[in-house]
Amino acid sequence: MRKLVVLAALALTFDFFAFAQEGGLRYTIQVRKFENRAGWSGKWSLGDAWGAVLTDKLQNSGRFIVVAEQDMRNAAMDEQDFAASGRTAGGSKAPKTGQMTPAQLMVKGVISSFDDGTKGGGGGIGYKNVRIRGGVKKSTISGTVYLVDTTTGMVMASNPFEATVTSKGLRVGYWNRGFSGDVGGFKKTGIGKVMAEACDQVANFLYAQLESVPWSATVIRGGDDNIIINRGSREGVTVGMQLRCGKAEEIRDPDTGELLDSDFTETGRIEVVRVKEKLCYAKKISGKAPRKGEKVFQ
User: Fold this and answer.
1) Separation of alpha carbons 257 and 263, rounded Å
2) Quick check: 264 and 248 in contact, CB under 8 A?
3) How far, in Å, CA of 271 to CA of 290, rounded?
4) What is the pLDDT along the chain (298 residues), one digit of tens a residue?
5) DSSP structure string for the chain
6) Which domains does the chain have, with CATH numbers?
């Protein structure tokens, strides 16, 4: 049994690195706090726990560039404002404004029902933060997830999720006065397992939407050789990748200013020859040499 678990873990690790090496182009995404409409309350916030598990899932998938949740970004901006006020020592270690990575996509939603499985079934004994219980425990969660385009504010897609985990026999659990952010330990509990299963459903739904999300970049330096593009290994760019260059015209509603469409005219193609974390170098392989400011598409 242990060998099977080890082999499964190795397979998942291989899949992750294979995805990264294939150059699966990635998008920045942020998980916003899910609204708790389940009527459940406890010693920790249902929305905070869900957000931590889903953020952890997306971060470890290798398919997204996950920016911090809103409370952490707000805390970072507070530190930036404090440093800019002149009341700190300053220097190279002081946080700077204008450097935060924006999210292209946003995930939000509602948790419509939640049962942590504490009702009925099974007594137990406890000491400090450890509890040993018997019997049957059934944890359930359901809700709806929304994928939002942060440029337009429009909902791109939505999908329901629902998961149930039943635990039988002797169980060892851990609890504390609040959800501390120990995601690994939390996911080993019955509640954590049912959230992890539901987050798997949500993550698979998000992966399926990526084909409809246009991936684009911009030319920083043009020419025939040593072309610089503002995307790198962080976004999944790899050496040998071929990209289309040209001019993109935004078509907007003259009455509302809303973006209606983007008309792209391909003028040439380039091939990536060197990759850094946040940018890449390329050479022209056909058509006209790209100019600074032109758009690049996969």
Assistant:
1) 16
2) yes
3) 12
4) 333 333 333 333 333 333 333 345 888 999 998 999 998 887 788 898 899 899 999 999 888 999 888 887 888 888 888 888 877 777 777 788 887 888 889 999 999 999 887 664 444 444 444 454 555 678 899 999 999 998 888 899 999 999 998 876 444 444 444 455 567 777 777 788 899 999 999 999 999 998 888 788 999 999 999 999 999 998 889 999 999 999 888 888 888 887 777 788 999 999 999 999 999 999 999 999 999 999 998 8
5) -HHHHHHHHHHHHHHHHHHHHHT---EEEEEPPPEE-S----SS-HHHHHHHHHHHHHHHHSSEEEPPPHHHHHHHHHHHHHHHTT-S--STTS--TT-PPPPSEEEEEEEEEEE-S-SSS--EEEETTEEEE-SEEEEEEEEEEEEEETTT--EEEEEEEEEEEEEES-EEEE--SS--S-HHHHTTSHHHHHHHHHHHHHHHHHHHHGGGSPPEEEEEE-SSSSEEES--GGGT--TT-EEEEEEEEEEE-TTT--EEEEEEEEEEEEEEEEE-SS-EEEEEEEESPP-TT-EEE-
6) 26-67+102-211 (3.40.50.10610), 215-297 (2.40.10.410)
Q: Which two tokens stand for residue 97?
A: 């404004």
Token readout for 77 is: 């901006």
| 46-61 and 190-209 helices, crossing angle to 10° | 50
Which amino acid would we find at residue 176?
N
